Amino acid sequence: MKPLKTGKTKWLHIRLTPAQHLIIKSKAENSTCGKLSEYARYILLDKPVVTKVRNASLDDLMTELILLRKELSAIGNNYNQMIRKLNSLSFCHEVKTWLVVSQSIRESVTDKIDLIKLRVNSISEIWLQ
């Protein structure tokens, strides 16, 4: 017995304006169909089309996480510049005393900033999958 051919052998030609083509193409790109022809077959044969949906609240969260990461980097950089500047000033006894006290604070602040950055990065990686 000869196997039945299931390949697509018939053509359907249609003409579209550039605007119509863009509309159909953008709808196809927002679907899970791999090709425009696959999307057109689904629509023409009244089959359900699965569209991609993005959660706007997650997009907002990602934007906030990016801003938070940048702000944390700026805070860390500013703090390190301030400490370097104070280390270069050796004329005042009070400054030297403050530097000794601030060393533990500096370590604590940088550890917390690094911990927050790691957490933001892990949330970003999970979300972007």
Question: How does this model look, in words?
Answer:
The chain has 129 residues and is mainly alpha-helical. It is built from four helices and no strands. The chain is rod-shaped and about 95 Å long.
Short description:
With about 130 residues, this protein is mainly α. The protein has helices spanning about 20-30, 35-45, 55-90, 95-129.
Structural descriptors:
4 helices, mainly alpha, 129 residues, 0% strand, 70% helix
Counting DSSP H or I runs of 4 or more residues, the number of helices is 4
Distance between the termini: 48 Å
Instruction: Specify the structural class.
Output: mainly alpha
Query: What does the main sheet amount to?
Result: none
Low-confidence stretches: none
Q: What percentage of residues falls in helices of 4 or more residues?
A: 55-70%
Report the β-strand fraction as a percent range: under 5%
Count of DSSP strands = 0
Globally, the shape reads rod-shaped
What's the helix-strand series?
HHHH
Q: What's the average pLDDT?
A: 80
Q: How big is the Rg?
A: 30 Å
Write the layout of secondary structure elements.
Elements: H1 18-29, H2 36-44, H3 56-88, H4 93-128
Helix pairs in contact: 3-4
